[in-house]
UniProtKB/TrEMBL annotation:
This is XRE family transcriptional regulator. Residues 8-19 have a biased composition (Polar residues). Residues 1-21 are annotated as: Disordered. It comes from the Bacteria. The lineage of its organism: Bacteria, Bacillati, Actinomycetota, Actinomycetes, Streptosporangiales. It comes from Actinomadura barringtoniae.
Amino acid sequence: MAPHDGPQTGQSWHGQTELNPEDEERLIKAACRPTRVDRSVIESLAAILAAQRRTEDVIGSGPLLGPVRAQLDMIGHLVAEARGPLRSEMVNVGGQWAQFYGWLRASCGDVAAGNRHLDRALEWATESADVDLVSEVVSFKGHLAWMSGQAGATIGLSAAAVRGDGLYPGQRAISCSQEARGHAMTGDAWAAEAKLDEADVQAAAARERLDDAPPWLYYHSPALFELERGLAYRYLGHHDQRYNQRAIKAFGQGLSGLPVEMRGSEWSGEFIYQLGRAHLQAGEREEAGRLAGDLTSLGERLGSDRLMRQAEALSPSS
């Protein structure tokens, strides 16, 4: 895992971007008198959220729950009072914050609360008429369905997330790979392979249009989609060891290919765990135990109870 010696410039270990005095004053006045919201306030909130997303990659979800909840409460007041031509922009950035907080709650183990905040994000995204944001929120609801073991909802919500016209191909790519995961959970190898191939086509198209990418897709990379392929294969490997070996290969390539700044993220730990599961399915308990040690180290550094539980599940003593 990549070491991190301290917060990067413009970030704090509490997940808050360090504002200059003018930005801070503007945000405080906007919170007290919401009718003062202007484009510079909206741009500042978007910049803070971009920093929060990358901060989570460094310190995990838990430390951000308090700060992001407080920030979202303030943004809720701004959205409630926003009027005129800037309302759509304010509602849009509010939807992005609600989506991020919903993910944080789910990542910390409260999937039900995460879904409630995604519902609010979906309302704001719909009002703002941002088809990519609507797709992202619906896709994340599919991800939370996967976290809860609901294959049908994983497939259905992932498919719904790509129905909009004019979607950025990266939105289609991540939802197609997620739908493949759902089909793999049911043992439908043909449908899973078809969606994985579609995801690869869409991901390649997205790489030709990086300037159009929504800010929340900053983490997309070829390695991520290799990891997604590995996850679908891991489910298919329940019934076919050939798929299980392909899963092990895909996970290995994907983890080694992740950008350095993402290899120590909490979400990358999920794929370490899934690689360990694939080794267990192959009867390779010693290798799974080695990965349990890696996952324990990562979980301890990030203070992640979820990763620690996953490490325990991979341990030879389990």
